[in-house]
Amino acid sequence: MFILMESPSKIDTMAVEQESAKKIDSKTFQGKIEFRDVWFRYPTRIEQWVFKGLNMTVYPNETVAVVGESGAGKSTFINLVMRFYDPESGSVLIDDIDVRDYNIHALRLQMGLVMQEPTLFDYPIKDNILYGAAEASNAQIQAAA
């Protein structure tokens, strides 16, 4: 366990060079997501490819459902967009810029993620909503619910 915890991550979110990485301008950010010939397998399962040459484009304001059986790559799709992992080959682009060129913090601030098994804290729903938006009005809480 300690060996795993002490292993350096290939994606260092604390790296100094992150300061010089491309920041996202929220005024011009469109959100077009493109996978170009993406090959990916998890480091713990190198014998099993999740994506083998995935090509896909999701355009801004387009609604897309990613469906499939367990292990088909639904969560992996998001993990690559949010840069929790990098593809073994190919590119994941947002607005025609490789996600590896973005400042990770700036990139992740532009996205909201609800995991497929969300955790609700043992409090009323209102308190759970306020956990993510402490200054929300009652009208905003109701709209979120």
Characterise the protein shown here.
The protein has 145 residues and is an alpha+beta fold. The chain has 2 domains: 2-113, P-loop containing nucleotide triphosphate hydrolases (Rossmann fold, 3-Layer(aba) Sandwich); 117-145, no CATH class. The protein is built from 5 helices and 4 strands; from the N terminus they run H-E-E-H-E-E-H-H-H. It has helices at residues 2-6, 74-81, 104-109, 125-132, 138-144, and strands at 33-40, 51-58, 89-94, 97-98. The protein has a 4-stranded antiparallel β-sheet, with no helix packed on it. A hairpin with a 2-residue loop joins strand 3 (89-94) and strand 4 (97-98). The chain is globular. The N and C termini lie far apart (39 Å).
Which terms summarize this structure?
single chain; 145 residues; alpha+beta; Rossmann fold; 2 domains; four-stranded antiparallel beta sheet; 4 strands; 17% strand
CA radius of gyration? 18 Å
Strand content: 15-25%
What is the β-strand count? 4
Query: Which percent bin holds the helix content?
Result: 10-25%
Shape: globular
User: Strands across the major sheet, in which order?
Assistant: 2-1-3-4
Q: Averaged pLDDT, please? A: 83
Helix/sheet category? alpha+beta
Please describe the biggest sheet, giving its number of strands, its sense, and whether it closes into a barrel. 4 strands, antiparallel
CATH topology-level name of the largest domain = Rossmann fold
CATH superfamily of the largest domain: P-loop containing nucleotide triphosphate hydrolases
Secondary structure tally, helices: 5
Distance N to C terminus: 39 Å
Number of domains: 2
CATH architecture descriptor of the largest domain: 3-Layer(aba) Sandwich
Provide the low-confidence segments as ranges: none
Order of helices and strands: HEEHEEHHH
CATH class of the largest domain: Alpha Beta
